[in-house]
Each structure stands twice: as C-alpha cells, then as structure tokens.
Amino acid sequence: MNDSDILEYAAMQAPHCIEENYISDTLFREYGVYRGLRDENGKGVLTGLTRISELNGFKSVHGQRVPIEGELWYRGYRIGSIIDSLGKNELGFEKVAYLLLFGQMPSDAQLTEFSAKLGKSRRLPTNFTRDVLMKAPTHDIMNMMTRSILTLSSYDENILDDSISNNIRQCIELIAVFPMLAVYSYHADNHYNNMQSMYIHRPKPELSTAENFLRMLRPDSKYTPLEAKVLDTCLLLHMDHGGGNNSTFTTRVVTSTGADTYAAVAAGMCSLKGPKHGGANIRVIKMMDDIRGHISDWNDRDEIRHYLNDILDKKVFDKKGLIYGMGHAVYSISDPREIILKDYAQKLASATNREQDMSLYQIVEEEACDLIKEKRHIKTGVSPNVDFYSGFIYEMLGIPRELYTPLFAIARIVGWSAHRLEEKIGQGKIIRPAYRSIMERKEK
C-alpha cells in the first residue's frame, strides 16, 4: 500500500496544496478567530458545561487572573483527597471509575458489584484475539486498538439500541477490555514483527485493572504491591481532565451526532494518539535519553543548565526549542497530578535502584522551570506537568514505550464514557461550530 508512482505524484502536488490552504496569522487576528480555540491568554473558548470534572490554575481577583496551585476535581472531590483516602495497598481504579460514571462515591456493596461486572466483562469474543489482533499486527498499538474497537461493534447484537442503559453497558464492557486490547496487540506485534516469543495470559476477574495489566504484560505474570499501586495511581490521574481536552471533546462531538459508542470511543482514540496529546511522555523520555548521552556529570547543575539552554535555543536534541514535560495550558504554579506522581516516582526509584536517574529528573525539573521563565519572560510561573514523570514511572515498571499512550487510553476511556453519557443526557444538540470563509471567488 505504498505505490511509488502515487507518492511521486503527491510530492509534485504538495506545494500547490500548501499554497492554496495557507492562512496567515494576520487574518486570524483580523477576524477575531482563536486558533486552537484558545484566546490570547491561552484560556480555552467556552464550548460546553460539565458536572464531571474541573481543573483550575488561576482565580479571579478584582477582575485579574491570578495563578494558584493547580487543582483537579472529580465529581466534587479533589484528586489528592481521593488518592489520600485509599489505603496503603488499596487500588482505586474501579472506585473512581464508578464515581466518574455515576456521580457518587460507591458504597462497599456498590463497589463490589461494579468490580464484579467489570471482571465479568474482561473477555473478548471467541477467536477475536486470533482473527483480529494477530492477523495484521503493527508497531502502532493505538491503531490496532482503534481497529479492534470498531470491530467489536460488529459483535454487539444490541448495537442499534441507543438507550442510556445500553450505552452504560457498552461503556463498562469497553473499560473492561481496553487493557486486553492494548497488551494483546503489543504481544502480537512483538511476536510477528520483532520475532519474540508470544504469550497470552487471560485476565483474572477478581484482580484490578492495574494488576491485570501487569499480569497480562509480563511473561511470569508477577508484580509487587508497590508496582500495582503506582500503576493504579497513574491510571487514576489520567482518567479525566475536564471536557475541554482534545480527545474528550472529540468524543463529545461525535456523540452529539448520534453515533454509537464504538464510533465515539474510536474517534477519541484517534485524537489521543497524536503526539501533541497522548504521546507527550514519550517525548520526555527521549529528551532525557538525549540529556544522559550529552551530560558527563549528572550532578553538575551548571552543565545540565547549559545543555537545557541549548535545547531552548534549538541547538540540540530535536531542535524545536521545547523542554518537554514543562508547562501546561491551564496550570501554572503546579500540576496536581505531577506532584502526586513525583512522590510515587521517588518510591519506585528507591525500589528499583534508579535514585541517580531520579536525581537527574529533579535537577532538570528545577533548572528547566527557571530557564523557561527567564528566557520566555513568563510571569505566571512554569511547572512540570503530568507527563514529566509518567514516562519515567512506566520505564521503571518495565512497560514498553509502545504501550505508554495505550495506557493513557486505558485510563481515559473512563472519562470518555462519562462525558459521552453526559452529552447524551444533558445536551441533545449536534455540535456544529462555525468557520468563516475567506475563499477567493473565481466566478460571479
């Protein structure tokens, strides 16, 4: 599917395509159109209402936006309070999934029932793994998962039932099988394309999402309580992030058309796989690999600062002038998710003898924040975001990089599901934004 003749033709046409589709920044300013639906201050243009989650990085004081410590709320609870409420080895994915889907923190009986429903749903149709996941494996696990989601719709005998109860059933089943789709897709690719051994471990209904992921991924199916706790925490922090993130908004847009659950979730997957959205932690990992390769002394702050300065000046690494994992569109002083992950990264680094790497991450974090504020003249503050430590944590857990973004999806399917249900219940109109045409008319 890569015809050289077509590729040559496409290369010839590309300059014409670029010329006819380019729109200057001047015109966006002239017509008052906000690129990326973000105003001059980086604030998102209001496009909807939600009761599911909230994030804040600023507060209004006498009409002025004043930066504050970042806040993330799920259904009225601070994310930090939710995580603090869990026991030392208690895993919270199922509890928080219930909260986001149904709006209330579950009782013990409700949590037991919901967890049992998820456990029962951790199964794929007969021969699905062989006929779908193994027939056309690829390194792009997100594409394999998306294809599988759409294929699952053909196995749903009630696909035409658009009732809320049927949509809830479909969402629960997708939440349950997402870890299987991700891990099995990885194993298929690793076997057929990398010539490695292949093993398919079935999930255990009584185990949590994080435990089942580690069990299915590893050859021996073994994991420690700390590893399960850290991965569970990562999933909790990625479950939702307001309705305005790109993949959730995409899910709501597609939902508003009346499309089925599988189509809406597949659309969210396509959005999430973009490197500007779900792939950010991989860029952090690659940047840190580059820093390690060019810094002789990992404890020399001056040497590290000098190299980070060269990154910002587009002299080294990918020469885009970005220190990945730094800054956020909403948070300024701090990202509450990063604060939590940093603590778990330290615990995992101690358990895996990666303290030297952890120290390097901390130095890079501190020096990068100062440099960016200094060179970009940012007065509101710069802080690391959730992506800065998440990739490092996955690396310490021995999770292949091909699964970093799929892990994001395993968590975010919960948020997508909650927003899909809210869109169907509380909105009722197709989302149809306006574009102003600046087309040149070539005839009267």
N-C termini distance = 42 Å
Strand proportion, as a percent range, falls in under 5%
Q: What ranges have pLDDT less than 50 throughout 5 or more consecutive residues?
A: none
Major sheet, described briefly?
3 strands, antiparallel
- For the residues shown, what is the average pLDDT? 95
Work out the helicity level: 55-70%
Q: What Rg is obtained from the alpha carbons, in whole angstroms?
A: 23 Å
By secondary-structure content and strand pairing, the structural class works out as mainly alpha
- Strand order within the widest beta sheet: 1-2-3
Number of strands: 3
What sequence of helices (H) and strands (E) makes up the elements? HHEEEHHHHHHHHHHHHHHHH
Shape: globular
The helix count comes to 18
Architecture overview:
The protein is mainly α and 444 residues long. The protein contains 18 helices and three strands. The protein has helices at 4-21, 25-30, 79-85, 93-102, 108-121, 128-133, 141-152, 164-192, 209-217, 225-238, 246-256, 261-272, 280-294, 301-312, 336-351, 355-376, 387-396, 404-426, and strands at residues 53-61, 64-74, 77-78. The protein has a three-stranded antiparallel β-sheet with strand order 1-2-3. A hairpin with a 2-residue loop joins strand 1 (53-61) and strand 2. Helix 13 (280-294) packs across helix 17. The longest helix is centred in the middle third of the chain and has 29 residues, at 164-192. The chain is globular and about 55 Å long. It starts with a helix and ends in an 18-residue tail after the last helix.
